[in-house]
Write a structure and sequence with these properties.
It comes from Thermococcus eurythermalis. 32% of the residues lie in helices and 19% in strands. By secondary structure, the chain is of the alpha/beta class. It binds iron/sulfur cluster (SF4).
């Protein structure tokens, strides 16, 4: 094992470590935490895309319809000159930055530092599209914005409630923890809009009508409170808001919930009782909860269940399961338009000034910046003139992406720092070639807030550079203070200084160990991070979807992920082994609906919403009546809903649509 080096899997937020032999570039699973000798196919074949012939090798500049190679020096000079000119003419908020959930903590830290020193909080990352609703709800309820417990706790809880989340496809290795818990006798309750692979392991399978999650959660709370199954001592001593929630859930009887959710009242009763009587439990959720206009309220409603039962600390945990490998790190490093590093609000003057002083200035901008999902309208209005994107592909990943593509064309300056010529990069004025994850060193934070080190395994391809090096050059070219880094470790040491919990820890410890939890392994064992130290129970009412099915668009369109695909496909489609495993993406249609529409298995169909239409082959089954299920990875966002919830997350999981056989 000594010749192997460890890297962090570049795909999902579970954060498996890979052991790579630099001579053969063969991958083995890391035997220790967190993956314990396991990997899913994506991890096993993680290095394949790195050696793709499609890799960008030189900086490129647009000249008319063509992209022409230029030197790094020329690229930096021209980009910085244009950014400064736009700031001079229109102010710093005319520039926006998009960070990446795939690059390291150091790289996200540097990009948000550049944005804020440049004078704007227009810095965001794709956490906005997935779990920002969880962050807002967790901040409101507990005062912190991330997963509360480590994965290892999962196997010791007596019940696991999995909501709008399909780990068997999205985080396959976490299933191992869930199955270990089940072996020890834990009850597994799964709530989803369709029968997922995860449901195959469930004791209770709650197939819910899309958009009715709050009704189910409130009905479960109704049972828990009505039958006095809640933890009275915990509720009295450590929470506020109990009387309000007791009043609010009174009308959400299981019988009422059955009519709205489609789940039999008896099943709701039983699932609620089972979860409550287990004595300890986890609530895990994914984008099935957050990507709704009711995303924040949905998450508050399931947090209520854990708080009523005292399933916090040793007795339970809240697990908003992250999508990309460093989405947790990007958010924690401050690549969000409303938070400084550590989810500290921009209005926290003491912390803000401390960060400013570390960066060699008096203060930082205090106005919330634009959410990633608000950028496109701001560009259309002419408020944003320049956009600098690191490793994100909004021309495919954003809801209703044709409006994003229109906006990208309007920019005075678009810079894309990328590994491949993505759909977004095709609109750029400058494309900067970035090194892949194994061609550089740096740290990443997984969903359980474990910071892990990824070691450099091989040299960068062509003239590509690690993102931190490119951003160091950019900071210098812009004349910002403190951009004199000559190693990535200097940046790690700098971000360590922002967090009191890391002050005593060293970069060497991080490089040689199994990771460091920030701020600590388990949160809220004795208090909450709210002003009075108590958690808040929030009475939430059902929020209806932005567009409901009607005569014209009678079906609900929802999007899902597949085990061998990853996000917009730029990496997985360049991995020959994964492509072999994938098969053709299909839209899932209920058999009964298909019969009515004359659609047979394998037929080409058109799926249309108010935003446009896409074509795909049909697969019959796997969707309840009235629901159409599309893998999100490629073109589904051509037609998804851009309606935003309070945290700026679009309603990707619910659009009204119609289908027809072609
Ligand atoms: Fe990578 Fe996630 Fe698969 Fe682990 S479970 S190998 S982190 S994609």
């Amino acid at each position: 094992m000594s010749e192997h080096k460890t890297v962090v899997c570049p795909y999902c937020g579970f954060g498996c470590r890979l052991l790579v032999d630099p001579k053969t570039m063969k991958v083995k699973p890391y035997p220790g935490e967190p993956n314990r000798g396991k990997l899913c196919p994506k991890g096993l074949y993680a290095l394949e895309f790195v050696f793709s012939r499609d890799r960008l090798r030189r900086p490129l500049k647009r000249e008319g319809q063509k992209m022409r190679p230029i030197s790094w020096g020329q690229a930096m000079e021209e980009i910085s000159h244009k950014l400064l000119e736009i700031r001079e003419l229109y102010g710093p908020d005319a520039v926006a930055f998009i960070a990446s959930s795939k690059v390291s903590n150091e790289e996200n830290y540097l990009l948000q530092k550049i944005a804020r020193l440049f004078g704007t909080n227009n810095i965001d990352n794709c956490a906005r599209l997935c779990h920002e609703a969880s962050v807002h709800a967790l901040k409101l309820a507990l005062g912190t914005g991330a997963q509360t417990n480590p994965y290892e706790d999962l196997e010791n809880f007596n019940a696991i409630l999995i909501w709008g989340y399909n780990p068997a496809e999205t985080h396959p290795v976490v299933m191992d923890y869930i199955l270990k818990a089940k072996k020890k006798g834990a009850k597994v309750i799964v709530v989803d809009v369709r029968e997922t692979r995860t449901m195959a392991f469930a004791d209770y399978k709650l197939v819910i009508r899309p958009g009715t999650d709050i009704v189910l959660a409130n009905a479960m709370a109704n049972v828990i409170i009505g039958e006095e199954l809640y933890d009275e001592e915990f509720v009295k001593a450590r929470t506020r808001g109990f009387s309000e929630i007791r009043m609010a859930v009174r009308k959400y009887t299981p019988e009422y919930a059955e009519k709205v959710t489609g789940i039999p009242a008896g099943t709701i009763h039983e699932a609620a009782r089972t979860f409550a009587l287990a004595g300890s439990g986890a609530v895990m959720w994914g984008m099935g909860l957050t990507q709704h206009v009711s995303g924040v309220e949905n998450v508050l409603a399931v947090i209520n269940l854990a708080l009523l039962l005292g399933y916090i600390g040793e007795k339970g945990g809240l697990y908003p399961m992250r999508g990309q490998n460093n989405v947790q790190g990007a958010a924690y490093m401050g690549a969000l338009s409303e938070f400084l590093p550590g989810y500290v609000p921009l209005t926290d003057e003491k912390f803000r000034k401390r960060v400013a002083s570390l960066w060699g200035v008096d203060d930082l901008p205090t106005e919330r910046g634009l959410y990633l999902t608000e950028l496109w309208e701001a560009i259309e209005r002419g408020d944003v003139k320049a956009l600098y994107i690191v490793g994100e592909n909004p021309a495919v990943s954003e809801a209703d992406f044709m409006r994003v593509r229109r906006a990208l064309r309007k920019l005075d300056l678009l810079v894309v720092q990328e590994v491949f010529m993505t759909r977004t990069a095709r609109y750029a004025h400058y494309v900067l070639p970035a090194s892949a994850f194994c061609e550089k060193s740096g740290s990443y934070m997984n969903s359980e807030r474990r910071i892990q080190w990824g070691h450099k395994i091989c040299e960068p391809m062509g003239d590509s550079k690690p993102d931190w090096e490119i951003l160091t050059m950019l900071g210098r070219a812009l004349g910002l203070p403190g951009f004199s880094y000559s190693s990535v470790e200097e940046i790690t040491a700098e971000y360590f200084r922002l967090f009191p919990e890391l002050e005593e820890r060293s970069v060497d410890e991080l490089k040689n160990g199994e990771g460091i939890f920030l701020p600590r392994k388990r949160l809220h064992t004795w208090d909450f991070a709210t002003p009075d130290g108590r958690a808040r129970l929030f009475a939430v009412e059902r929020v209806r979807p932005w567009e409901e099915p009607d005569k014209e668009f009678p079906f609900v369109l929802t999007t899902v992920r597949l085990i061998s695909h990853y996000n917009t496909g730029e990496m997985t489609l360049r991995s020959p082994s994964l492509v072999k495993l994938m098969g053709e993406p299909r839209v899932l249609i209920n058999e009964h609906d298909a019969r009515k529409l004359g659609i047979r298995d394998g037929d080409w169909v058109e799926i249309e919403t108010r935003r446009g239409r896409i074509r795909m082959r049909a697969k019959l089954g796997g969707a309840p009546e009235g629901v159409v299920v599309v893998p999100f990875h490629f073109k589904a966002n051509r037609i998804t809903s851009p309606a935003l919830n309070k945290a700026g997350t679009p309603e990707l999981k619910f659009s009204a649509c119609r289908i027809r056989k072609l």
